[in-house]
Amino acid sequence: MIGGRNLLIVPGRVIVQSWRAKFWNKEDISILILKFLKTRVGTRADLVHAGVPSYDQQGVRGGWPKYYWKPWKRYLASAK
Predict the structure, then answer these.
(1) How many domains does the chain have?
(2) Is 44 exposed, middle or buried (0-12, 13-18, 19+ CB in 10 A)?
(3) What is the largest CA-CA distance in the chain?
């Protein structure tokens, strides 16, 4: 459903990827930036997903919590 490539990886700090959904127009490619920041109680992840075409912004906004943030949170809570 989604394809992409790693553009930059700095272990433990940042991941930058190009992303595109199968149904997007061929010229539409987005950039995902995921930064990891140490905090007093663990780690915080900050995400920027730029360049998502207007016709799929609502789907991408809804997809992040549904397919990534909530499953990651459940996984990390069970790994303790």
Answers:
(1) 1
(2) exposed
(3) 43
In SS3 terms, the chain reads as CEEEEEEEEECCCEEEEEEEECCCCCCCCEEEEEEEEEECCEEEEEEEEECCCHHHHHHHHHHHHHHHHHHHHHHHHHCC
Domain that holds residue 27: 2-78
Measure the CA–CA gap between 52 and 70, rounded to whole angstroms.
Answer: 21
pTM for the structure as a whole: 0.84
- Mean pLDDT value of segment 61-78: 92
CB count within 10 Å of CB 30 equals 19
What are the pLDDT digits (tens) for 24-41? Answer: 999 999 999 999 999 999
Name the residue among 15, 19, 52, 20 with its Cα closest to residue 33.
15
Mean pLDDT of the region 38-59: 95
